[in-house]
Description:
UDP-N-acetylmuramoyl-L-alanine:D-glutamate ligase, nine-stranded mixed sheet, 11 helices, 35% helix
Amino acid sequence: MKYDVYLYGMILITNSFLLKGAYPEPDTYGEIKKRYSLPGGETGTAATVLSSYGCKIIMDGTYMGNHTYPKIIDFYKNKSVDTSRLYLDQSFDGLEDYVIIDKNTRTPFGTFGEYYSDGLKRWNEPLENDIINSTVVGIDPWFEDMTMKVVHTCKNNNIPYVTIDCSYDSELHKNCTVNVISNEFISSQYPNLSRDELFHKYIENTKGLVIFTLGAKDIQYGRKSVNDGQPKHFKPYSIDVVSTLGAGDSFKAGCIYAILQNMNDDEIVRFAAATAACACTVFPLPQNPPTLEKVNNLIKKIESHY
């Protein structure tokens, strides 16, 4: 069977809590306005967004658990997302996170440290035929040799892939079509490097497009073979933010869709930024994903002012 997109990575249940006001100070009270328990994770959210765009998707990655599997299967049953590869491990409840959100921040809690440190690798081995039969691939970097199996299959079959938040000297980065590096990753992994110095390290180690997302600051992007390696800049769209949960994962989904549509570098960044912006105007994102109409209208609206 042929697919538009193969996604491999983090699929979980996100328990999200939207606050009525700002995140409270310690030892004070915060009022919860809305709360939901819905599929999330980098791959789960990307699948939701790409399905909204009309793509045919197959996703694989983390094991499902007793609590998470029914919710995830039920959520995607009427969407263009093939969940047949998801494996139910009945020895645990499944991977969940808990996210507290106000207008400008999101604060996640979870047990990811335990997930990676207990010695049990609760993620699937990707199937080569799934990858080969897809036009574009999205890869999360967290799954060691299984991540690299997807990379090698893509490389051997000339399949473009988008990834996120991996180091500039990694094989995952070297062979990427697009690598989206978040401000959070930069700050935690490279605190002593300037953005410009780090950007050049990234572009020197790949032929792909490198994108630095820096929150509300200008997006920095480019590649070694263009513009003498000097980064271009794109100002994020100005929107009325409801929740930033899922914005980065939506940006990744936007890049994947843009590659499917054979967009150039400038168009990729513009479309991905608009996807992320639309994602920030709603809550919860899984029930209100960006649509092509909303994204294209936002792009047209901004461009009409120039």
